[in-house]
Amino acid sequence: MGHLCPACSAVFPNAMSPVLSPPYAPIVHIGPAYPYRGGIAHFTECTARSLKEMGYPPVLCTFQRQYPEWLFPGRTQTVTDTPPPPDLPIPHRRIDTLNPLSWHRTARWMQNGPFGGAVIQYWMPFMAPPFSWLAWRMRSAGRPVVAVVHNALPHERHVGDRWLSKGFLHQIDGAIALSDTVARDVHALAHDLPVLQVDHPTYTRFGPAPDRATARAQLNLPAEGPIVLFFGFVRQYKGLDLLLDAWPDVQAVHPDAWLCVAGEAYDAPAPYQAQIDALPQPDQVRWDDRYIPEREVARYFAAADLVVQPYRHATQSGVVRVAAHFDRPVVVTDVGNLPNAIDEGRTGFIVPPESPGQLGATVARALQPETLALLSGPDTNEGASGALAHALHELLRNARL
After folding, report:
1. Taking the model in full, what pTM does it have?
2. Confidence at residue 15, expressed as pLDDT on a 0 to 100 scale
């Protein structure tokens, strides 16, 4: 589950015996957290929860303002109808990404608190300036800082991305990479930084799934016939347009098949809608163009027979881990670490990226009743949360030596 990045020359002790014994000093977890929404917020809470089980009392520190409205492509950045996690403390909302005075105040609060270190969720260069400042101030006070790096470089590149990420990585004591692709990017930007690679834990926060008939009735989807699910926010690199190009080939084999798209458009929705309208049977494509609340996630996966991720490029995917929790097979493209989660022919299929013809043929084959009967969801990755906690513990521990 957790192992040294092969590109990293750092060597860690094999023994897991800590320098200090539990209970440890509290750890500050910096990143999106309640009431902020989305996968990184879920992962912040997952990280805090996994370290809490090891004996690190968690303290969550999140944003007053995460993005300016003009930069955020979605409709809202926070949830209004979801309660906070009952097993974690309410996050401190302190960081305004556009106000350096808030960075200073947050750093002073961290330095003056009884904290043994900090864990930062890092996923885009826009966050590098405030996170670099907080890391530098904590380390100057003798407190170790490590990061969980979801993406060292963004999917959609801009001028200055490498410089900003490199600056942040040089302010921390170690990094967790969730894929070998990210580990290589981290190593290229910060050669001497200790890096541990850990598999993405399975998300279990969405609760048990209703039965298939109930889920379809709740979503007003047909009771019979195959349903394919594209889940998550819609952006160019995720390839929904490629799946829509492939969809006529699927329906040629399965005329009763439905495509359910569950996710808010972060790109202009009009081109996607035009593709849907041009399909031979556009009424058999359902697009819920909105952020899917946590309480509804289980319905979509329970209603579906197959999950499809036609990404143009990726590092890893939380959607695969949600599919694993709900035991739904997945078709992925051969990008990043997506194929690593798939046992071809048992938990799904792998297709080349940007190949609508092969994508359509593969989805059509996967929906054959005799094939579906043999498929199950990706392995649930038991122990990955524990591996994440142990890897973070090792990085924090070695930073103290």
Report:
1. 0.84
2. 32
